[in-house]
Amino acid sequence: MNIGQEKVTGVYKIVGGKKTRCDILESGELGIITGINAKTGQVIGLPLKDFKYQSFVKPMIVATVNVKKEDIQKALDSFMILNIEDSTLNVTFNNETKEITLSLMGELQADVLKTIVKERFDLDIEFSNPTIIHKETVSKVARAKAGYTRVSNVELELRPLPRG
Q1: How far apart are CA 20 and CA 3, in angstroms?
Q2: Looking at residue 141, what is its pLDDT?
Q3: Cα(105)–Cα(63) distance, rounded to whole angstroms?
């Protein structure tokens, strides 16, 4: 999908939940790019021939958003906006308990979300009751080797254990 050209107005690295302005984001770094109309998971930049996008995003935790009672509606509205920007959040609201829950990749994403919600929506939030929704286990012996130079090598072997 070609959305045309847009101007990037800011590039920020996210390190330890803190946002720092920068000029370059390297592969593997978390960051925020402002000024363009894009969604999480959307490929941006020059099109590459034979490029096939594959998403590896699978939230592993469901957590409850803790916010002051008087701020529940504002928090829900804020998370609905964030859910549009990143649909992997899977924001839900329980009318009976008045609880907002969402899916997270882990603690780092929770820290980033706290910062974003504070900066964009002026809300102080915390997360509680984290529940693992996805867990993988080794089913058979697997081995791998990797090396950077003749000096720097690693070998890894994973073996299944009895459940528990």
Answers
A1: 28
A2: 94
A3: 10
Q: Output 4-8 pairs: Cβ under 8 A, ≥24 positions apart.
A: 6/35, 6/36, 6/37, 7/35, 7/36, 8/33, 8/34, 8/35, 8/36
Residue 13 near residue 19 (C-beta atoms within 8 A):
yes
What is the token pair recorded at 19?
A: 């946002």
Tell me which H or E stretch contains 32.
Answer: strand 31-34
pLDDT tens, position by position, 81-104: 999 888 889 999 999 999 999 999
Listed residue (60, 67, 118, 54) closest to 89, CA to CA: 60
Threshold 0.85, pTM exceeds: no
Contact 18, 115 (CB under 8 A): yes
Judge contact between 136 and 142, C-beta under 8 A.
Answer: no
Cβ contacts of residue 115 below 8 Å, gap of 6+? Answer: 14, 17, 18, 19
